[in-house]
Design goal:
The protein is an alpha+beta fold. The protein has helices at about 1-10, 90-105, 125-145, 150-165, 170-180, 220-235, 255-275, 285-295, 305-315, 340-355; strands at about 20-30, 40-55, 65-70, 75-80, 110-115, 185-190, 195-200, 205-210, 320-325, 330-335, 360-365, 370-375.
Length: about 375
Amino acid sequence: MNEAVVAFREAYGTEPEGVWAAPGRVNLIGEHTDYNDGFVLPFALEQTVTVAAAPWAGAPDGALEVSSLRAPGERIGVPPDAEPGSVPGWAAYPAGMLWALRDAGHKVGAARLVVGSDLPDGAGLSSSAALECATALALTGLAGIALPGAELARLAQRAENVFVGMPCGILDQSASLLSTAGHLLLLDTRDLGVRQVPFAADGLELLLVDTRVKHSLVDGEYAARRASCEEAARRLGVRALRDAGDLSALTDPVLLRRARHVVGENARVERVVALLEEGRAAEIGPLLTASHVSLRDDFEVSCPELDAAVAAALAAGALGARMTGGGFGGSVIALVPADAVAEVAAAVALAFAERGWAEPHCRTVTPSAGARRVR
């Protein structure tokens, strides 16, 4: 937060009117179910994207100027009439958020934003959604507009779907805006109903492994998976794969695999929640691993680094492990006995070293607070 404030002060010679923060997320389980009207179980990280912001005096309503601590000296101006697809790179996310708010009829004025972050890019931890959500709070805060978190999540999803061009579900934005400390967020993506699920796992830790493999989901793979799911639902005659039961009518092997993952993943989410609510956290491990196998074999969104991290963690004593995020790189989440964390992390690092890959970054994580004003 302080770095963004200092950068804002240096750039504009004045203090920001406020600073807002939105966290990244880890999805414990429930991958690629959100755009199938299914269930997801993410939690917020301590690491956040922060936005220091102030009104842009003299600029027309809807204009935006953004800069980032990760691109020193660069200021990107966005005109008030910016259309979807017209803003390249990372600036498309805050620009899209402003566009979505105004397109929904909210009178948001011109603003200057300075962005800071301690979230790694490309790690599958939703830094882009965190940027959208921090921007949403900043812009509505400057305008004196109070919107429910669920409504902001819908608008942030629309910004990413339409303005950025990424056909994501609503998991990431909801996790960033609606999470609470110490809890997992059970989200029904059909009606956006939420339940805060306490995460009490004495003697256990959640180990996050950033493989350092960068992924890009706007390159067509994510969109292809979503299109396959929609086609499978159409052939089954259901609204979405959340409603599918018997999959025998799917004769196309690819569509069958995609549907099998979604149906199985929804069931795994519900079972994990039941076990956690019964105080049986250690028993969720095999469900996490089964989720990874399904994502690897049926949904085909894993990669060698993710598979190696999961295998090494399990061999070293993790109770369960899976890739988290959209796939094709990013991170792994593992459920590990507290006294085995160092051993598991070392085993993953050794597996990468033996293959000549860059050293992964391992750290324990805890469910943390959602997006908020911090100054």
